[in-house]
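Work package 3, deliverable 3.1, input record:
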Amino acid sequence: MSVIRPYGDTTGDGMVQLSFTLPIEHSKVAEGAAVQLANKMGMDPALVAHAKPMGEGFTFFVVYGRVNHLVDPSTVEVVERDYPLLTPKEANAAIKRSLRRRLVVVGGCIGTDAHTVGIDAILNIKGFAGEKGLEYYRELKVVNLGAQVSVPQLVEAAREEKADAVLVSQVVTQRDAHLLNTREMSAAFREAYPAAKRPLLVVGGPRFDETMAGELGVDRVFTRGTTPGEVASFIVHRLTSPRTPRAPASTERAS
Amino acid sequence: MSVIRPYGDTTGDGMVQLSFTLPIEHSKVAEGAAVQLANKMGMDPALVAHAKPMGEGFTFFVVYGRVNHLVDPSTVEVVERDYPLLTPKEANAAIKRSLRRRLVVVGGCIGTDAHTVGIDAILNIKGFAGEKGLEYYRELKVVNLGAQVSVPQLVEAAREEKADAVLVSQVVTQRDAHLLNTREMSAAFREAYPAAKRPLLVVGGPRFDETMAGELGVDRVFTRGTTPGEVASFIVHRLTSPRTPRAPASTERAS
Amino acid sequence: MTPPTRRTGSQLGLASADVRRARTLARQVGKPIVDLATRHTTVSVERATLRLAGLGGADPDGTPWVNRLADAVRADVGLEHGVSLPVWDALLRGEADDLLTLAQKAAAGSVTFGIPEGKDATRATSASRKAVGAGIKQIDRQRTARERMIAKVGDAPSKPWIYLIVATGDIHEDIPQAQAAAREGADVIAVIRSTGQSLLDFVPEGATREGFAGTYATQENFRLMRAALDETSRELGRYVRLTNYASGLCMPEIAALAGLERLDMMLNDSMYGILFRDINPIRTFVDQRFSRQVHARAGIIINTGEDNYLTTADAIEAAHTVTTSQLLNEYFAKEAGLEDWQLGLGHAFEIDPEVPDSFRLELAHAMLARELFPDAPLKWMPPTRHMTGDIFKGYLLDGFFNLVGALTGQGILLVGMMTEAVVTPWISDRDLALQNVRYVMNAAGKLHEDFHPAPDGFIANRAREVLGEAVGLLEEIKADRTVAGQPPLLSAIADGTFGLMKRPADKGRGLDGVARKAADYYNPATQILEGEA
Amino acid sequence: MTPPTRRTGSQLGLASADVRRARTLARQVGKPIVDLATRHTTVSVERATLRLAGLGGADPDGTPWVNRLADAVRADVGLEHGVSLPVWDALLRGEADDLLTLAQKAAAGSVTFGIPEGKDATRATSASRKAVGAGIKQIDRQRTARERMIAKVGDAPSKPWIYLIVATGDIHEDIPQAQAAAREGADVIAVIRSTGQSLLDFVPEGATREGFAGTYATQENFRLMRAALDETSRELGRYVRLTNYASGLCMPEIAALAGLERLDMMLNDSMYGILFRDINPIRTFVDQRFSRQVHARAGIIINTGEDNYLTTADAIEAAHTVTTSQLLNEYFAKEAGLEDWQLGLGHAFEIDPEVPDSFRLELAHAMLARELFPDAPLKWMPPTRHMTGDIFKGYLLDGFFNLVGALTGQGILLVGMMTEAVVTPWISDRDLALQNVRYVMNAAGKLHEDFHPAPDGFIANRAREVLGEAVGLLEEIKADRTVAGQPPLLSAIADGTFGLMKRPADKGRGLDGVARKAADYYNPATQILEGEA
Ligand code: B12
Ligand code: B12
Ligand SMILES: Cc1ncc(COP(=O)(O)O)c(C=O)c1O
Ligand SMILES: Cc1ncc(COP(=O)(O)O)c(C=O)c1O
C-alpha cells in the first residue's frame, strides 16, 4: 500500500486539528509559542484558530494546519490474529481432545484497579458484544477473583487452581499504573514457576498497546473492544497446539 | 522566559489532543498508521482514543499523547505594536498638525472576496468592539469601495482619491486566495507609483500571519480581533512621523 | 413531499387578522416590483431562452455561444425586442442551419440581424416557440423522471431533510464527498459555488476543478453530480436531492440548466444578489421572476436567503426583517407559480449565544416562521456568525440548533459545521455534524410533545412582538415615496432596510444588461411558462 | 442552602399513596440494618473516636498512632468494650500524660490495658467524654465558621451548584487546578481519592504527591485544600465548597477529619463500599451510621452513589434500583440525624445514547427523583459509561445532560468531561466543561417554564413505571428470608440486587475489624452525637 497523508477536504492536503494548553498567560507571544509547537510537530502553515486564557497563567489553543509528514501503512507493525476463531463448540472440542480435562482460567483486576466491567465482559456468562463469556464454555473452568487483587494473591490462586491461563485486567493508566502492575505480575510468575510450567499470561485493558506483550513479559495483550470469543480462541490455540516454548506475541508487518 | 511544555493535568506532562482523517479503510493497520503519524509529530506514547470509519476508504481518528518537544517563548517572533495608541481626538490633531489636510483612506475587499463585515468593522462609523470606525475621525476621508473590487479598480480609485493609505480585506483563504490577491495588489501599486509616493498598504483578515508583511509587500498586516483604533493609530503614526522610506513591518523578538 | 406536521390552532396566539394584514402588505409592496419586472428583460433572460432552445457550448476562449449570439443580436437591433425573433428570423432566412452555426457566424460578424415583420414575424415566432418548447419539454421530462425515481427508490425517510454542503472547488473531489455524505445520512447535497461566479455575466462550461471556496456551477458539473447521486440514491434506497445556486448575474440561465439537469432545489432569493453581491436591483428582480417561473415548471424547491441578513445585522434587532423578507419571497414565489411545498423559506440560528435566554429566543423565532408558513418546508440554517475557533463550543451550539429544528418541525435542516469559523467543511466535520443531528433527532426528536410555551409566556410574547415589527416595517416600506414613481421597495432597499446594505436602484452590477421591453417584445419561454396560448 | 424550586402538585401524576408506601417499605427494610449497626462497633469507629479526642500523627513507618493504640487495646481486652474506657483508664492510671505518649508506649508494648470497673469506670467515662467532646466542639466551631463565612463572602449564586473534580494525585497540582476551576465558575470542588485508598485500613498522614488517578485523603491534604479554597472564596466573593469521600474501610475516621477540617460535602453511600469495593456489609453499615452521625453534626451534605449502579447495570433496566437505593439512603440518613437539605441523593445520565427517546427517558428519571425528594439537593451525574474517545460526541452529550439538569431543577450538577473515556480531566477539559454548563444554563436555563410533559405522556408514564418497579423491589427485599434471622437487605445484597454485584454478609474486606458490642460497651462520641445526657 502506498504512502498517504491526512485528508481534510482534498487528497494530499495533509490537514489536521490539534489542541493543547500551554502554561503561559495569553498574549501574542503565547500564540506564537503555540505556533512554534505546531511547527515542531511538523505543521506548517499552522493557524491558531482559538486561544482561550484559563485560570492564571494558562492558555488553551486550538490549531489547524497541514502536516508535511508522510504515513506509510506498509511499515506499520500490528499484532495480526495468528490463531483461528473458534465457536464455543469447537473450543470445547479442542480442549477435550488435547487436554482430556477442563482448562482452568484464573482472572482478576490487579493492583488497586477496581474496574471489573472489562474482565467480567470476558469471563461472565453474560459476555460482551453478543458473545457469551468464558464461563459459558463447558470445558473451561473460570475463577474470577474480582477487583484489587494483589499479585501474591493472584499467584497463590493460580497455584491452587492449577491455572492453565491467567487473565489480568488493567484499566487505570495514570502514571502508567497498568504497565508497572503488569510487569510486576509477569515477574512474579517467572519467579514462581519454571518457564515451561508457567501458565499462559494474558493482560487486557482499553489503553494497552498490543505490540507490547514482549516488553511486558506476557503472552498476549488485548485492548479496546476485545470479545470473549477472541480470548477463548487464543487460549485454546496456544494451549492445545503442540507445546512450544513461550515466545512473546509475534508482531508482524502489515501486508 | 524559560522553556515550557504542553500541560494536561501535571506540569511537564506534555499532553496534547490531535484529530485527523486518513484516506484508508478502518483496520488495525489504519490505527497503526494513525499512531505512526502521531509519532512522526513527536507524540510518544500516542493513544488512539477514537477511530471512526467514514464513507468509503476514510477513517477519522482522535489521538491523545505526550509530545516531547520543548517550547521556547523567548525565541517567538511577534509583530509588537511599534506605535502609540491614539484616541480619535489625538489622531485628528496629529493629522492636522503634520498634513494640514484630511488624510485619505481607500478600502475594500479585493478579488472575489465578498466578506465586507471585517473591513466595515474598521471603516464604518459603527466600528467594532466598542471603538468607532475610521469614518468617525474628522480628519480622515474614508472611501469604502465595498466587496469584490478588482486590483485595477483599486489602484484607479487610489489615484483618483489621492489616497494616503489603502486598506484591503481578505477573508477567504482557500487555496491561499488571500496571499495571491495581496501579492497581486502590492505588485500593482509598486507598478503604478514611484516608491516614495506609493500609499501606505495595509491588509487584514482573520487568517493572515502578521509577520508576513514583508513577503506580501505591504506595510502592515492585521489579523483576528483588530480594532479600528489600532488601525487609525498605525496609519497616523506612519504618515505623520518624519517620512522614512517604506520598510516592511519589522518583526521583533519577544522579550 | 409530505407536508410538515401541522399544529392545529396557534400555539403562539397569533391573531389571524395580523397574519392576513402581513400578507396583504407583502402583496401591496411586491406587486409594483412584479409590474416592473414584466416591463423589462435582461441579457441573461434572453440567453436562458437560447439555452432552452438547445444552444450550449463555448468558443475557444470559453465564452459561451449564447453570449456571443445574444451580444451580436443586441449590437444589431438592441435587446428590447428580445433575441428570439431576430435569431429565428435569421435561421429562417437561411443564415445557418442551426443555432450553433448561427452563433459561430454571428461571432465572426458574418450575420446581421433584423426584426422580422408580418409573416416573417409570425414564422419566427412559431419557429422559436417550437425550439424553446423542446427545452421546456426536457424540463418536464426531468420533473417526471424525478417523481418516478422517488416512487421507485423511495424518498427521504423523515423530516427535517438533512442538508449538507460540499465545497472543495473540484467537482471530482466534490463527488466522492457528496456520496460519502449521502451514505452518512444526508438527504440533500448542496454544491457551494466558487466565490465570484455570481459576478460573471456568463456561465462557465464543462467540468471544473479550480474554484475558490466552492465549485463553479456549470451544466456539466450539474450533470456529473446528479448522475453520481442517482447512483447513490439507488444504492441507498432513497432519493438524494441536489442543490445549487440560482443567483448572481446568470440566475435565469442557471435556473434553466438546473431544470434541464434535474437539480432538485435551488437557492433563489429575491434580494440576496442585490444586497450581498451589489447586483442592480432591477436586473435582479427581472432575472428573479424568470428563474422562479422556470423553477415552478421544473418542480424545483427554492431556498431563500434570509439567513444572510443575520450575518451582517443583529439576529434579535433584525429578526423582523427576516419575517418581512419571508413574506415578500412568498409573494414573489406564488406570483411566479411556485406552490407552498416549493417554498424553502430561510431562517437561521444566529443569536449571540452570550445573550440570556438566547435558546428560547431562537425557539420563538423558529416557531413564528413555522406558524406563518405552515405548509412551506422551512429551511433552518445553523449558527455561523457566532461560531469561533472553539470547535467544541461550536459543536455544542450546533446541537442546540438541531434541537430547535426538532422542536419546531423544520422541513430542511442545513447541517452546521464545528469548523464554521476556520475552514470550509472537512470530510470529518460533515461526519461529526451528521452524528450530532442523528443524536438529537433520535434522543429528543419527539420532545415537542412535551414542549408547550405558555400562551403569554416569554416565547409567545416574543413571537408576537416580531410579527408586529414585521407588519410595521412593511407599512413603512409601503409608505416610502423617496423616489417618485419608483416602487417603494426599491427605495427601501436603497435606504439599507435589509442586512444594513444600501443599494440604490440605479447602481450596482449588471444594469447595462437590462432593457425595457419594446411593444413587439417576444419571448417564447416566458409565454410558455406563463401558460399563454 | 435555599430549597430547590418546588413545583406544586405532581407533574408526573404520582399517587401520594405509592410514595408513602415506598417510604414505609424503605423504613421496614432499613430498620433491621440500623439495629444491626447499633449492636456492633468497628476498629475504624474506635479510631475515629480517638481522633476526635485529638490523637493524630503516625509512627516512623507511617502507621497512624490511632491504629497503633487501638490495636494494642484490642490485643489486651478486645474491641467489644470500645477503646475509650481502657484508654482513659490507662491515662488516669498515669500510664502517660497524654494520648500521644500513651500510644507510643502502647506501640512499644510497655502498657497493658484493662477494663475499669466501678469508680474507675465512671472516671474513665467522664474523662473520655470530656476529651472527645473537645473534638466535637471543634466540629461545631467549624460548622459555625462555615456559616459565618458564607454570610460574609456570600454563597453560590444559583442552583444547580457546579461540582467539579480534580484528580492529579498530587495535592500541590490539585490546589492550583481547584482554584482555577473555582475562578472559572465551580461552586464545589471534589478531590478524587487515589485508587485503593478505600482498601487501606488506616488513613495516610501528611501532604501527599503520589496518588494513582486521585489524591490521598489525609487530614493535611484536607487542611491545605480548604485553606486554598477559603482564599479563593474571599477573592471571588462566594463560598467554594470542598468535597471528599467518606467511604472505604476508614469511613468513620475520614468523616471525623472532614468535620474537623471543615469539608462541606462528603460522598457517603450506604452500600457503595459493599458493592464496589467488596467491603464486608456489616462493617460498612456500622461505619456508615457513625459517619453519618458525624456529618449530621458537622452540617456536611452527603452525596450518595446511586450513579455507580448504572456503570455496571443498564440504566433503563436498573432505573428502579436507583430509586430504591435513594429511598434507603434517605431512611439511613434521617435515622442518623441528617436533614433534607443535607441529602445529596445521586442519580445519573447513563442511558445508552443510541436508545430511541433516550433524552426523554433521562428526563423521566430525573423528574421522578425531583418529585420524590422535593427538598433534597439532588446530585445529578454526567454520562460516563457511554462516553467514548469521540470527544466531540461526548461534549454534545454533556450539553444535553446539562439541559436535563436545567429542566429538572437539580441541586448539585457534577460537570461532565469530554475526555471521560480517555484520561482523568485535564485543566482544559474542565474549562471547556464549565463553558458548556454556562451556555446551557444561560441560554436555556428557564426552558422548564415551557416544558410540561403530558399527564399521560411518555415521560409521566415512564416515571410512574419506575416508581412501581421500585416499590415492587422493596417488597421483594422485605420478603427475603434466604438466611434466617439475617436482615433481609443483607440477603438481597448477597443476591446481587444492586449493580449486579453479589456480596454475602460473611464475606468481604474488613470483617475482622467488626465486633459485637459487649454489655459495657462505651463510646463517648456516639453518646454525644446521639445527644444522650
Ligand atoms: C465504569 C467505570 C467505573 C466504575 C467501575 C465499576 C466496576 N465495577 O468496574 C466505578 C464508578 C466504580 C469507577 C470508579 C473509578 N474510576 Co472509573 N470508570 C468507569 C468508566 C465510566 C467505564 C469503564 C468501563 O466499564 N468500560 C466498559 C468495559 C467493557 O470496557 P473495558 O474496560 O475497556 O474492557 C474491554 C477491553 O478493554 C478488554 N479488556 C479489559 N480488561 C481485559 C482483561 C483481559 C484479560 C482481556 C483479554 C481483555 C480485557 O475487553 C473488554 C471488552 O471489550 C470509565 C470511563 C469510560 N467511559 O471508559 C471510567 C474510568 C476508567 N475510571 C477512571 C477512574 C480514575 C476511576 C476512579 C479511580 C476515580 C475515583 N478516584 O473515584 C474510581 C476508582 C476505581 C478504582 N479503584 O480503580 C478513569 C481512569 C483514567 C485513567 N486512564 O487512568 C476513567 C477512564 C474515567 C476518567 N476519565 O477519569 N469507574
Ligand atoms: C458573514 C459570513 C458570510 C456572509 C458575508 C456577508 C458580508 N457582507 O460580509 C455571506 C453569507 C454573504 C458569506 C458568503 C460566503 N462565505 Co462566508 N462567512 C461569514 C462568516 C459566518 C463570518 C465572517 C464575519 O463576518 N466575521 C466577523 C468579522 C468582524 O471578522 P473578520 O472578518 O475576521 O474581521 C476582523 C479582522 O479579521 C480584521 N480585518 C478583517 N479585514 C480587515 C481589513 C483591514 C484593512 C484591517 C486593518 C483589518 C481587517 O478586523 C476585523 C475586526 O476585528 C464566516 C465564518 C466565521 N464565523 O468566521 C464565513 C466564512 C468566512 N465564509 C466562507 C465562505 C467559503 C463563504 C462563501 C464563499 C460560501 C459560498 N460559496 O456560499 C460565500 C461567498 C462569499 C464570497 N464571495 O466571498 C468561509 C471561508 C473559508 C476560508 N477560510 O476560505 C467561512 C470561514 C465559513 C466556512 N467555514 O466555510 N459569508
Ligand atoms: C440565497 C443565496 N443565494 C446565493 C448564494 C451564493 O452566492 P454566491 O454564489 O454569489 O456566493 C447564497 C450563499 O449563501 C445564498 O444564501
Ligand atoms: C459513593 C462513593 N463513594 C466513594 C467513591 C470513591 O471510592 P474509592 O475512593 O473507593 O475509589 C465513589 C466513587 O465514585 C462513590 O461514588
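DSSP finds seven helices and ten strands in chain B.
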